[in-house]
Design goal:
heterodimer; A: alpha+beta; 8 helices; B: 520 residues; alpha+beta; six-stranded antiparallel beta sheet; 63% helix
Chain lengths: 357, 520
């Protein structure tokens, strides 16, 4: 089922929940809505579900405008952060509830529930009540309930936030694999960029009710179109510095404070001259024995597999990653080198990328 | 310091010093109790008592309390002594007992000194005619007379034979009792045979200052016993005993209520018969169960009336409150906040102020055909309707609170699963607040069952009377009230409520726990 969201606006009183949102979701696509709390991603999801009515704009399922269609007539399945299981019903009754409302016969209900339960690996829990299940099991029941009526669209509202880190990792893979196999168009709301990056075909980044970008995870990470995207995607976050682009005879140079670096010719014609915002990801900065730039280590944060260093060059700070085996301590002097092919440049005023449009 | 010195056991404190300190600590506790209770008694006696007396109450409770405090004060002090000795010497019972006994003895000396100074206890002034008397064959023989005493002033001489007070003949015992129970300065007209002639002399009762050795000995024995008992008494029981003591008045009240229903009369908790002897157990008070007792309705009809009112009220309150509470919790509509605040104001509105206006409303309803026969003035339906109105504010707020506690997600989930709003409310939301509905239902039932003011006002005559109104008949304005009868009817009215509580207490507790703890 294709979903088209056109000029969608949802206001609560004078407050904009979503402001003029345009989004096309292809049939069978897995789309993540990513953004900080209060950015309008859940509002958009609930509007797609039909719980909220749009203030203006249209939502299409296939060719039908569903603006005023009741949630029960949209044939959607939804999984909530709180699981929203019905505590007074058994697992079986929970999963069978959508079928019961559809008027499916008892035998059919039984068959479908059994099938879904065995897919979800909860076949032996059917007689229990939600209160007797662990968080992971409850989430599986919720997923089963959303899947049992074979929906055209699956909606996820931060479904993994209440699980512990390890279970989250397993469930992430399971949901992705399930969606892939069933080919159901899915919208997945999350504030966790790792979830979005690993699961989604495309990510819609939202902020303050506006759509900031709608791209594949690779594009968002490697070719950020705005400063906001570059800042928001990636952990540890991208380093930013104000740089002065200069040079003569087609040879480009970049000056950061007292530091001057040569730029490869591939940036010529794109970055122009004058002040820009330079962006460089922590993993594109490496330690070198000789050459490079000298800096002093300000803070060392061990992350386990790597140490995160805060290296100061002049009064400019750069986050980078280093092998813990090197046992670098705060106060040490190190030489660092930028991967000059992976730099990002943004306009100082418009905050748009100078490289990707 | 060497390691050898460190490893040596701690030197036990010198026994005599530790004994002394135990005694001193025990004594200190006793003294503190004496001072505290003494001050309290003085406060009652000197400050509160005059204030209360000035309001015109004759026998006031503070005097009684002060007297009780003073007479019990030494006992409490000795108990504190013993308890404190136990705490000071926790490992040795023997030492604690000895310390307690010594401390109690010292305290006894102190208290006795204070008593002699304040003329209390054994030194309490006693009513006396200040003569010595003995029993003889014909009457009471005066052996000696204290010079200047009451008997002397009255002109009584040694050798007089007292035969009676006024017309009543006396013995030694009855004379002593009469003197002891009269007040100071009361005149006693004594019939006396002196030298074979009968005369009458009036003696005014005076105050004897002599102290009684037996009283002193008794209190010393009490002191030692109390101190020893306190040593052995488990401290953890103290809390229970205090709780039981403070609960006792209530329990005694209930006990009386029950006993009274089976008695002709009661004296304290004892059933007595018309002559004042213990006995007089009767079922007469319960005859209202079979006999209409002057009212032209049997009690069973009236009970049925009460049941109809209570059940009708419960159903209406649950229906309206749950739906209104849901709307107020979940829907946004014009005037929602105003409505909520007005409901709250209504809850605080005294029902009495609205009685007259409600009468007009019910009277108006009564003129409508059909509807008027069910909900008009002087119908059970009308009474139930009015009480529903008074119960609703509380019910609506309660229900709103319960609905507020249910996550939106569950309802959204139901809608997405394919339910209509109504079906989601009925099948998903309502089951979540079942404890709240049950609790509200029980509240509504109890207030309907016990209601008095509204039924009394809006149902005249006995056709529509409820139990409370029926009970009121027994408290006569002109004839003396048979309180045992009232107690019986009261208990009869109480039984269903007790049964209800027995089965529903778990749900009632729920209301205070703030609704259900969902499993989601």
């Amino acid at each position: 089922m294709k979903i088209a969201i056109e000029n969608l606006t949802k206001k609560f009183g004078a407050v904009y929940g979503v402001n003029d949102l345009n989004l096309d979701i292809n049939d069978g696509e897995f789309v993540a809505f990513l953004g900080p709390s209060g950015c309008g991603k859940t509002t958009t999801l609930l509007t797609v579900a039909g719980i909220y009515k749009p203030t203006s704009g249209t939502i299409r399922f296939g060719d039908h405008i569903v603006n005023t269609t009741q949630p029960r007539d949209r044939n959607i399945g939804m999984v909530f952060q709180s699981y929203a299981l019905y505590p007074h019903m058994t697992v079986f009754e929970n999963i069978a509830y959508p079928l019961k409302l559809k008027g499916v016969s008892r035998q059919e209900q039984h068959k479908h529930v059994q099938q879904v339960a065995s897919t979800m690996g909860i076949g032996e829990l059917l007689e229990r009540r939600p209160g007797q299940l662990s968080g992971g099991q409850q989430q599986r029941v919720a997923l089963g309930r959303a899947l049992v009526k074979e929906p055209d669209v699956l909606l996820f509202d931060e479904p993994l936030s209440n699980l512990d880190a390890r279970l989250r990792l397993t469930m992430r893979g399971e949901i992705k694999q399930l969606q892939n196999r069933l080919g159901i168009t899915s919208i997945y709301v999350t504030h966790d960029q790792v979830e979005a990056l690993t699961m989604a075909d495309r990510i819609a980044v939202m902020s303050k009710g506006h759509l900031q970008a709608f791209d594949t995870p690779e594009d968002l990470y490697d070719r950020p179109k705005t400063l906001f995207i570059a800042e928001f995607i990636g952990n540890p976050p991208m380093n930013f510095a104000t740089a002065e682009i200069g040079g003569i005879d087609g040879k480009l140079t970049m000056q950061i404070g007292a530091l001057t670096l040569d730029l490869p010719p591939k940036y010529a014609g794109k970055v122009g001259r004058g002040q820009v915002t330079l962006g460089v990801r922590p993993e594109d900065i490496t330690l070198v024995e000789t050459g490079g730039v000298e800096g002093s280590v300000f803070v060392v944060e061990p992350l386990g597999r790597e140490d995160m260093l805060d290296v100061r060059i002049g009064d400019q700070s750069f986050l980078m990653l280093a092998d813990p085996e090197l046992r670098i301590k705060a106060g040490n002097t190190v030489r660092i080198q930028f991967d000059m092919d992976e730099l990002q440049f943004f306009d100082l005023q418009t905050e748009k990328s100078l490289l990707w449009q | 310091m060497t390691t050898a010195a460190l490893s040596q056991p701690v030197i036990p404190p010198d026994d005599s010093i530790s004994n002394l300190s135990t005694i001193l600590r025990a004594l200190r506790s006793g003294v503190i109790v004496v001072l505290a209770l003494g001050l309290l008694a003085a406060l009652f006696q000197a400050v509160l008592s005059p204030i209360i007396a000035s309001t015109g109450v004759e026998e006031n409770v503070t005097t009684v309390l002060a007297n009780a405090l003073i007479s019990l004060l030494p006992v409490f002090a000795y108990l504190a002594c013993g308890s404190s000795a136990r705490a000071a010497a926790p490992r040795s019972f023997m030492r604690a007992v000895i310390a307690a006994l010594i401390a109690a003895s010292l305290l006894f000396v102190g208290i006795t000194a204070i008593e002699s100074g304040l003329h209390l206890g054994a030194f309490q002034p006693r009513q006396s005619l200040q003569f010595t008397i003995s029993q003889s064959d014909d009457g009471v023989l005066v052996d000696s007379v204290e010079a200047g005493g009451a008997a002397d002033q009255a002109g009584i001489l040694p050798g007089d034979l007292i035969t009676g007070i006024r017309r009543d003949p006396v013995t030694l015992e009855s004379l002593q009792k009469t003197i002891a129970t009269s007040n100071i300065d009361d005149p006693l007209r004594l019939r006396i045979i002196r030298d074979g002639e009968e005369t009458q002399l009036t003696a005014r009762v005076g105050e004897g200052t002599s102290f009684e050795m037996s009283t002193l000995i008794n209190s010393y024995v009490i002191a030692l016993a109390a101190a020893t008992a306190a040593v052995f008494f488990p401290r953890s029981w103290v809390a229970y005993i205090l709780l039981i003591l403070s609960l006792a008045p209530m329990l005694i009240g209930y006990a009386w209520l029950l006993i009274a229903t089976f008695s002709v009369r009661t004296q304290g908790l004892l059933p007595i018969d018309a002559q004042g002897n213990v006995g007089g157990i009767t079922l007469q008070n319960w005859r209202f169960l079979v006999d209409p007792l002057g009212s032209n309705q049997s009690v069973w009809t009236i009970t049925l009336n009460t049941l109809i009112v209570a059940v009708a009220m419960t159903i209406m309150v649950i229906l309206v409150a749950s739906m209104a509470g849901y709307a107020l919790s979940r829907m946004n509509f014009f005037g929602r906040r105003t409505f909520l605040s007005f409901t709250l104001i209504l809850h605080g509105f005294p029902a009495v102020t609205l009685l007259i206006s409600i009468f007009f409303v019910l009277n108006f309803i009564g003129k409508i055909p059909i509807l008027g026969d069910i909900f008009g003035y002087n119908t059970l339906g009308g009474v139930a309707l009015v009480m529903v109105a008074f119960e609703l504010p509380l019910g609506i707020w309660l229900m709103k609170g319960f609905f507020d506690g249910i996550s939106w997600d569950m309802e959204r989930s139901a809608l997405i699963d394919g339910a209509t709003r109504w079906r989601a409310f009925w099948e998903i939301i309502l089951p979540q607040i079942r404890p709240g509905i049950l609790a509200l239902g029980i509240f509504a039932f109890i207030s309907g069952w016990n209601a008095y003011l509204i039924p009394q006002t809006f149902s005249i005559g006995t056709r529509t009377a409820t139990l409370s109104v029926f009970l009121r008949q027994f408290i006569g304005d002109t004839a003396p009230t048979d309180w045992n009868q009232v107690a019986a009817v009261g208990i009869f009215q109480l039984i269903p409520i007790l049964v209800l509580f027995l089965f529903a207490q778990e749900y009632l507790l729920n209301i205070y726990a703030g609704g259900l703890k969902g499993s989601s």
